[in-house]
Amino acid sequence: MASSRPMGKFWEWGKNIFCVGRNYAAHAKELKNALPPEPLFFLKPSSAYVREGSPIVKPYYCSKLHHEVELGVVIGKSARAVPQEAAMAHVAGYALCLDMTARDTQEECKKKGLPWTLAKGFSTSCPVSDFVPKEKVPDPHQLKIWLKVNGELRQEGHTSGMIFSIPYIISYISGIVTLEEGDIILTGSPEGVSAVQEKDEIEAGIEGLLQMQFQVVGQKSRP
């Protein structure tokens, strides 16, 4: 049965943003992290979404805001304990996302054994592109994703470099948390993450499919 909700605007009604960390070996290495034996995932609130035309807001408590460009997988129908061979039937399409990270805050959270919410879940921490139906992507593991800051190429990688494949990730997460229609899974970032400053212009894209652009602004003080 077709959804009555517009999948092309999943960010307006989808509930969950699942983020898979350390899913590219070179990115794990650049942050001096060990490769995970299973997918490492965490959540962002749906209020983290921001669309082109609105800015990325650097939190008042953050001095080192990093960009991480990622392919997002949009869930088209509920998935609970789905085997790998059936996982792609639950995919509606794709989007490009940025996992904006307050890196200095994350480092402090790690030292103290605290959750990463302050570092990963703040408002505008998930810039999101237009929706791409899965019919337009013959193989999501053969895409080039890239990111530029003020015209300088910072990240460029191929989704073939993922440690854990999309079917594996869907199967793994759905065995722990039920995936719902409109949810998105960010599948990890290639190497090249670096800091952005206020007034920086971020451009990112999936080669041959789409691109998006955002400006960074600063939150001056605690509300």
Automatic annotation (TrEMBL):
Bilayer-crossing regions: none
InterPro entries: Fumarylacetoacetase-like_C, Fumarylacetoacetase_C_sf
EC number, UniProt record: 3.7.1.5, 4.1.1.112, 5.3.2.2
Coiled coil regions in record: none
Domain of life of the native organism: Eukaryota
One Gene Ontology term from the biological process aspect of the record: carboxylic acid metabolic process
Fumarylacetoacetase-like C-terminal domain: residues covered: 17-217
Family annotation (SUPFAM superfamilies): FAH
This protein's name: Oxaloacetate tautomerase FAHD1, mitochondrial
Gene: FAHD1
